[in-house]
Amino acid sequence: VTVHQGPGLTNAVTGIAEAAKSGTPLLVVAGETAAAAVRSNFRIDQAAIAAAVGAVPERVHSPQTALDDVARACRTAVAERRTVLLG
């Protein structure tokens, strides 16, 4: 599943929570707002939202690690039957 940062993610939280609670292996990809955009309405703590509903927060750390980061998130979703929010 892919969602837009901010309101796209918050609109999907009910489904993400249900997937997490039922042990559904799911990868949710959500864009993130730049850290410098402190006044943006789209800036929310995505990792905290994921953890609050039982999903595993993961992140793409850099272009150089993107493939490994996505692979790690997919492995967690499939092998551990978890819902993963990848920012």
Automatic annotation (TrEMBL):
Coiled coil: none annotated. InterPro entries: THDP-binding (IPR029061), Thiamin_PyroP_enz_TPP-bd_dom (IPR012001). One of its GO terms (molecular function) is magnesium ion binding. Residues 1-39 form the Thiamine pyrophosphate enzyme N-terminal TPP-binding domain. This is Thiamine pyrophosphate-binding protein.
